[in-house]
Amino acid sequence: MVSLDAKLSAAVGGPTAKALGTHLELHTVGDLLRHYPRRYVERGALTPFLDLVEGEHATVFAEVQGTTGKRLRPNLYKTDVVIRDAEGARMTLAVFNKPWIEKDLRAGRRAYFSGKAERFNGRMQLANPEFQLVDDEAGVVAEEFAGTLLPIYPAAAKVASLTVQRSVRVALDVVDLGPDPLPDELRARHRLLGLAEALRLIHQPTSYGDVTRAQKRLKWDEAFVLQVVLAQRRAVTRSLAGTPRAPRPGGLLEAFDAALPFSLTAGQQQVGRELAGEMSSSSPMYRLLQGEVGSGKTVVALRAMLQVVDSGGQAALLAPTEVLAQQHARSLRAMLGPLAAAGELGAADVSTRLALLTGSLGAAARRSALAEAASGEAGIVVGTHALLSEGVDFADLGLVVVDEQHRFGVEQRDALRAKGTTPPHVLVMTATPIPRTIAMTVYGDLEVSTLTELPKGRAPIQSAVVPVLDHPQWVDRAWQRVREHVAEGRQAFVVCPRIGGDEVEEPAAGPRPAVAVLDVHAELAQGPLDGLRVQVLHGRMPPDDKDAVMQAFTRGEVDVLVATTVIEVGVDVPNATVMVVLDADRFGVSQLHQLRGRVGRGAHAALCLLVTESESDSPARQRLDAVAATSDGFALSRVDLEQRREGDVLGAAQSGTRSSLRMLQLLRDEDLVVEARVEAVELVELDPMLAGRPALRQAVLDVLDADRADFLEKA
Ligand code: ADP
Ligand code: MG
Question: Residue 714 above 60 pLDDT?
Answer without folding.
Answer: no
